[in-house]
Amino acid sequence: MDDRFNSENTSFITVTAEDIDISSYKIYLNGYIHGTATIDKKPQNGHFIRKEPGKYRIIVREENASKENRAESNEINFEIKEKEHMHFSVTTKDNKLLLITLSANK
């Protein structure tokens, strides 16, 4: 990662999964699939994303966009400050994807 990217993207988002294989799903931030270039490291069955501080909307969807009844989580709106770390978890409940906020740390 280049120095400019690191200096602008000082906030961190982690999304982990409990009972699904996260590699079969895509993480959307503000309606866009987060780019692989934003991943510094991967926690086990999860993603670690560097972002600029700001307001975001996060949702998790099954990767296959043409799949009938494509699974989609609930949407969470949040604001992340400089050097803050937000941790989300995605799981299934009643055969639906459920995205929950686990913590927000500085």
N to C succession of SSEs: HEEEEEEEE
Judged by helices, strands and strand pairing, the structural class is mainly beta
Strand content: over 45%
Mind summarizing the main beta sheet? 4 strands, mixed
What is the tally of helical segments?
A: 1
Distance between the termini: 22 Å
| Beta strands, count | 8
Spans with pLDDT under 50 lasting ≥5 residues? none
How would you sum up this structure, described in words?
The chain is built from one helix and eight strands, in the order H-E-E-E-E-E-E-E-E. The protein is mainly beta and 106 residues long. The longest helix is centred in the first third of the chain and has 6 residues, at 3-8. The chain is globular. The mean pLDDT is 86.
Per-chain topology:
Elements: H1 3-8, E1 11-17, E2 25-29, E3 32-33, E4 46-51, E5 54-62, E6 76-80, E7 85-93, E8 96-105
Parallel strand pairs: 1-7
Antiparallel strand pairs: 1-4, 2-3, 2-5, 5-6, 7-8
What are the key terms here?
single chain, 106 residues, mainly beta, four-stranded mixed sheet, four-stranded antiparallel sheet, 1 helix, 6% helix, 50% strand, globular
What's a quick, concise take on this entry?
The chain has 106 residues and is mainly beta. It has one helix spanning 3-8, and strands spanning 11-17, 25-29, 32-33, 46-51, 54-62, 76-80, 85-93, 96-105.
